[in-house]
Amino acid sequence: MNAKLKAISGELLEEDVELSLGELCQVCRLSQDEVLELVEFGIAEPRGRQQASWRFRGVTIRRIHRARSMQSDLGVNMAGAALALELLEELERLRIRLARLQPAGGKGQE
To answer: Given 1.10.1660.10, 1.10.357.10, 3.40.50.300, 1.20.1530.20, which CATH number is that of 3-101?
Structure first.
């Protein structure tokens, strides 16, 4: 494994890290066909029009790991995993937004 892939295989990834299709396959230990299926369901969202020039954000690795965990641990199919990821991410965004709206040092007015 080259140095770049070793550096990006950790749990925390910068938002600006981008991976090629081949790098994503290698890091996630998936075949190209498996990644294409993830793209089809919206779990992995490439940037670029042509498959040869696709780039994936670093957060895609986390999304793939979460989807695969849902599949193996909970028996969720690919469409269900995609929907669950979308809902979990929306919940996370709403929690962040709510935290910004709450006054410092409290949970809101009682």
So the answer is: 1.10.1660.10
> Model confidence over 4-61: pLDDT tens digits?
554 444 444 556 789 999 999 999 999 999 999 999 999 999 999 899 999 999 999 9
Domain boundaries of the chain, sorted by first residue: 3-101
Tens digit of pLDDT for each residue in 55-90?
A: 999 999 999 999 999 999 999 999 999 999 999 999
Q: Torsions phi, psi of 57, nearest 5?
A: -70, 155
Global pTM value: 0.75
Taking the C-alpha atoms of residue 72 and residue 90, their distance in angstroms, rounded to an integer, is 23
Task: Check if the beta carbon of residue 35 is closer than 8 Å to that of residue 73.
Answer: no
Which of 71, 78, 55 has the alpha carbon at shortest distance from 8?
55
Exposed (0-12), middle (13-18) or buried (19+): which is 47, by Cβ within 10 Å?
A: exposed
